[in-house]
Every structure is written in C-alpha cells, then in structure tokens.
C-alpha cells in the first residue's frame, strides 16, 4: 500500500497495526517512495534455531550417495592422458 507522508501522519497508529498484521506500507513524498513500514520478522529462540539446523542436517543425509564425488568428476570428462573424451 502506498500512502502520502502527509496523510500517514494522521493514520500512523492504524498503519502500524496493518504492518503488524503483515502488510507493507510505503510512504511517499510527492509521489516518490521515501520510507517503508514493514512487519519485523519474529526472532527465533536458540532452541528453535537448533531444531531448524537439525531438520536441515537430517534432510541432507537423505540424499543418496551413489559413489560419484566432485573430486572424481574429471574422470568422466577426460581420458588417462588428460584429454577430453
């Protein structure tokens, strides 16, 4: 939502409530955007951070290891003399 700075002065409390609800408000001066009122992302507790890290680690372990590694990827591209196959 865009709103003129002069109009926002009278509606600041309402605009902050809307931002708390998740809406982003852009303040304009003479039609040019100059500022933004946006919701602040919630801060995670240390326990929530660890839970996310654990979930990510568990997801990466689910990727199958088919024996191909980046260290050996050149084996598929080049022959024993180092020339492209």
Low-confidence stretches: none
The CATH first-level class comes to Alpha Beta
Write down how many β-strands occur, each being a DSSP E stretch of 2 or more residues.
3
Give the percentage of residues in beta strands: 15-25%
CATH architecture: 3-Layer(aba) Sandwich
In this structure, how is the largest beta sheet organized? 3 strands, mixed
Overall residue-averaged pLDDT value:
85
- Using the coordinates shown, work out and report the CATH topology: YefM-like fold
The total domain count is: 1
List the helices and strands and how they pair.
Layout: E1 2-4, H1 5-10, H2 12-20, E2 25-29, E3 32-37, H3 46-61, H4 74-77
Q: Would you give an account of this structure?
A:
The chain has 85 residues and is α+β, with helices and mostly antiparallel strands. It has one domain: YefM-like fold. It has four helices and three strands. The protein has helices spanning 5-10, 12-20, 46-61, 74-77; strands at residues 2-4, 25-29, 32-37. It has a three-stranded mixed beta sheet. A hairpin with a 2-residue loop joins β2 and β3 (32-37). The longest helix has 16 residues, at 46-61. The mean pLDDT is 85.
């Amino acid at each position: 939502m865009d709103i003129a700075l002069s109009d926002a002065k009278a509606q600041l409390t309402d605009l902050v409530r809307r931002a708390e609800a998740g809406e982003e408000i852009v303040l304009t001066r003479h039609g040019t955007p100059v500022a933004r009122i946006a919701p602040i992302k919630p801060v995670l507790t240390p326990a929530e951070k660890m839970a996310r890290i654990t979930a990510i680690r568990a997801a990466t372990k689910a990727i199958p290891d088919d024996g191909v590694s980046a260290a050996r990827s050149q084996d598929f591209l080049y022959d024993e003399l180092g020339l492209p196959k």
